[in-house]
Design brief:
Blueprint (H helix, E strand, L loop, with lengths): L1 E8 L17 H13 L6 E2 L8 E10 L6 H11 L4 E9 L11 E9 L13 E2 L6 H11 L1 E4 L14 E12 L2 E8 L6 H13 L8 H7 L14 E7 L1
Parallel strand pairs: 3-10, 5-6
Antiparallel strand pairs: 1-3, 1-4, 2-3, 5-9, 5-10, 7-8, 8-9
Helix pairs in contact: 1-2, 3-4
């Protein structure tokens, strides 16, 4: 049987989603450990994407194959019982045998939160990036518009060894401000390593006046990482939703 899970986590204390040989401190390892004990056999859990160390998720999707007599509600209760308090299994359901959380994903939505203030938000500081310089929202929106569409996003990828196509489609980048918080919502068919954080950094540099939005087409055309903006910290980034 193939099972599909929807997961939320505060990624502050973890080394990202993907399991690594030198640490057990990853979301994937934690789920595989619990589910393997639940099923009584080694079980591999596939995630929709490899969120970076420190990145959060409200709607990460993962799947695994296994056999059990437990009901879905019993499985959910078992897994949540052994998860740390900053990770939660929101839902578990049966999926088609061919379903794969990463390979079948059609759209992903990420939110990057910026606290545009010189005063910390004590209750949300783990989930926002504090940026103290004034930001021009209209300039940020103009920059975001230039990044939408189908492009080779090589200039917005930190992994220089990535050999596959770096062409992705960004469907929309919405920017909203509430009080001192600015939220950038990115929706696309997929994102490269650090791509959202680099796009956010480029948009912020346009909003602060460090660069003009008119430069972005040339940055994309250059396919050169050094031409784009800074990679903003992982703390502000949350995987909001994965669509199939």
């Amino acid at each position: 049987m193939n099972y599909k899970m929807t997961i939320a986590y505060d990624g502050t204390n973890y080394n990202g989603w993907q399991k690594q040989g030198n640490t057990r401190n990853t979301i994937q390892w934690i789920f595989e450990n619990i589910i393997s004990r639940m099923l009584g056999e080694e079980t591999e859990v596939h995630g929709s994407g490899r969120t970076d160390a420190g990145t959060h998720a409200q709607g990460q999707v993962a799947n695994f194959h296994g056999r059990t007599d437990m009901t879905l509600s019993q499985m959910k209760a078992y897994i949540n019982k052994y998860l740390p308090n900053d990770i939660a299994l929101l839902d578990i359901e049966k999926a088609d045998e061919r379903f794969h959380s990463r390979l079948n994903a059609k759209r992903k939505t990420y939110v990057y939160r910026i606290l545009n203030s010189d005063v910390s938000d004590v209750f949300n500081q783990r989930f926002v990036y504090k940026y103290e310089k004034p930001l021009d929202l209209e300039k940020m929106k103009a920059a975001a518009q230039q990044l939408c569409g189908e492009h080779d996003f090589s200039a917005f990828c930190s992994n220089k060894k990535y050999k596959k196509s770096k062409v992705r489609t960004v469907y929309s980048i919405n920017i909203e401000k509430t009080g001192d918080e600015i939220r950038l919502t990115f929706t696309g068919n997929g994102f490269l390593y650090n791509m959202v954080r680099i796009m956010a950094g480029t948009i912020v540099e346009c909003g602060s006046g460090e660069r003009e939005s008119s430069e972005i087409p040339q940055i994309i055309e250059s396919k050169t990482r050094e031409k784009a903006g800074a990679t903003l910290p992982a703390c502000g980034l949350t995987l909001k939703k994965v669509e199939y």
